[in-house]
Amino acid sequence: MRFNLATKILIILVFGFQLNAQNDSISQNKKTSKVPVLYDEERQYFGAMSLTYQSPMPYGNNFIGKGFEGNGGYNFKFQVFIFKNFFVGFSYGFSDFNTTNTELIGNYTESTVEEISGILGYEFLPLPKVRLGVNTSVFGNATLTNSIQSGYGNRDFGKLRNFGVTLEYEFVRNLNVLLEYNWRKIKSEIEVPNELKSFFEEGTYNTLNIGLKFNFGGSAFTEKLSF
Hints:
Blueprint: H1 4-26, E1 47-58, H2 63-67, E2 68-83, E3 86-99, H3 102-105, E4 110-127, E5 130-147, E6 153-172, E7 175-188, H4 197-200, E8 202-216, H5 221-225
Antiparallel strand pairs: 1-2, 1-8, 2-3, 3-4, 4-5, 5-6, 6-7, 7-8
Organism: Winogradskyella marincola
Signal peptide: 1-21
Keywords: Signal
């Protein structure tokens, strides 16, 4: 499996940081107060990382929407909170698709989209133990690897745009269950005749992600720089 090593590394890091977080939490006094929607000092973190399974869902009148069918994938994110709950980070993942219409897109049986981008976002705190986040991609790139049963294939490239909304529930300290919805668009560089250009110039799909997110640290990056 492509993500076996990544999963093992994530598990090791989670347990290591979790033990450290538990030790830190023992020394802190618990406070009872209302939970601000935008910021709560007691729920502030330095960073987070997540690993999710994603289900891609093609849509639209384009080569992905009309020619592909979603077949699963994974996504890994790492983020650092710069100021309060505003964060920057990195996202890497891939979405697998089956070909449903070879007459439209060529004689391929499947395609994998590799998704790489920087991310910007903010997390809101509407309820205790609940986090609601929004994020958008920056400098995103996509690589489409098309293949047939014999193993032969080719690659296409494009610019990736992503907008995501996340809903998290903290079921233990620092460890959240994560549900995420993403809207994705690929501005492709596929070379086709002019009459097919509008059909191949972009591809659109959504993903529904579910997985785990681990938060670590107790203050934002700018707070660590202050004296």
